[in-house]
Every structure is written in C-alpha cells, then in structure tokens.
C-alpha cells in the first residue's frame, strides 16, 4: 500500500497549507484540487459563459491543462473561489476531472491531495485521511487577511458571508458533497497556529502509517 494522504475541508481551514507541508515532509507530489475547479470557473467566465452553464463548464474541464496552475494569480482571487464552488456543483465537471485526480492519487510512490471530496470520492482507500476545519469566523479572518495583504479591497462581513455561502453550497450539492469521510480524522484548527496545526496533522499521518505498516 502506498502512502496517499487525503486532506479535505472547507475554504480557508488551512488544509492547503497543511497538505503542502505534508507533501514536503514525506517527499510526495501534491495536488491542490481546488485549483482545478478554480481554473474551470475562470475559463468559463473568460469565455463569456454563465457559471450555471453546465455544458460550457464541462467543456472547460475537459480542456484543462493542470501544468502551471499554481503560478496563475487569477486563481487566487475571491471571484475564482466563488466560481470554483459554483462549477463544482455540475456533475459533468466533476466527472471530467475525476480521472485526472485519481491518476494523480494512483502514482506508485503515493501523493498528497487536498480538496472537498478526496477521502470520499477521489481516494477512498487513502492510507491517511484528514478533515481540516475551523469556525466560519476564523476562516473568514484568515482569508480576509490574505486578500487585503494583496491589496484586494473586501470587507470582513462580505468575506464571512462568502465563506458561509460556499460552505452551504459545497456541503449541499448533489454531486460529491463536502462531507467528512467516516474514517477521516477531524482536525479543528480554530485555536491553532500553523505550526501546531501541522504538528497535529503529521501525528495523524504517522498514526496511519503505523497502522498500515508504511
């Protein structure tokens, strides 16, 4: 069994930072699956289509080239996050990206993936599963600080409303809703700094490795 680490959770919970550090620690490739959906949403809007246009969103997903996504600053905006949450609700989009994500998770040496449905849909047999969360207020504060530091003008109240709206949409969608896998370990980072959160995550992974003999 290879070491596949599934890190799920809502927006701004810290899952991306934790997943990236786990990947570096264990020498594994890392895929932020949220970037895939952000890229789809940005392309749909760039092509002049509505985010509710399932056909256009699916076409964008099928044409997606993952290389270079981490360098695309357009994908870090609040608009891109909102677009990602909306196109992710289209079953055809999730189907188009499923094979790509599962192929990444199936690499011989293992991998780390973070998103909303890694432990439930993409890699249900992952050796280690974490569900990272925090209160909406704390998550909104984190994201608000990130965006304002980059010069993006957004009020905290608007950020909190966006976080809550995305939570409701991600958890309530019919296609692969965001839920904690039954065998995932809950990691609440509300009262944790990044070092404490990462240390807790690493201990969860080490427990999983020992259980599976990895």
TrEMBL record:
One of its GO terms (molecular function) is kinase activity. It comes from the Bacteria. Residues 5-200 form the Cytidylate kinase domain. It is found in: Cytoplasm. The keyword Nucleotide-binding applies. Its EC number is 2.7.4.25. InterPro entries: Cytidylate_kin, Cytidylate_kinase_dom, P-loop_NTPase. It catalyses: dCMP + ATP = dCDP + ADP; CMP + ATP = CDP + ADP. ATP binds at residues 9-17. The keyword Nucleotide-binding applies. Keywords: ATP-binding, Cytoplasm, Kinase, Nucleotide-binding, Transferase. Belongs to the cytidylate kinase family. Type 1 subfamily. This is Cytidylate kinase. It comes from Brevundimonas albigilva.
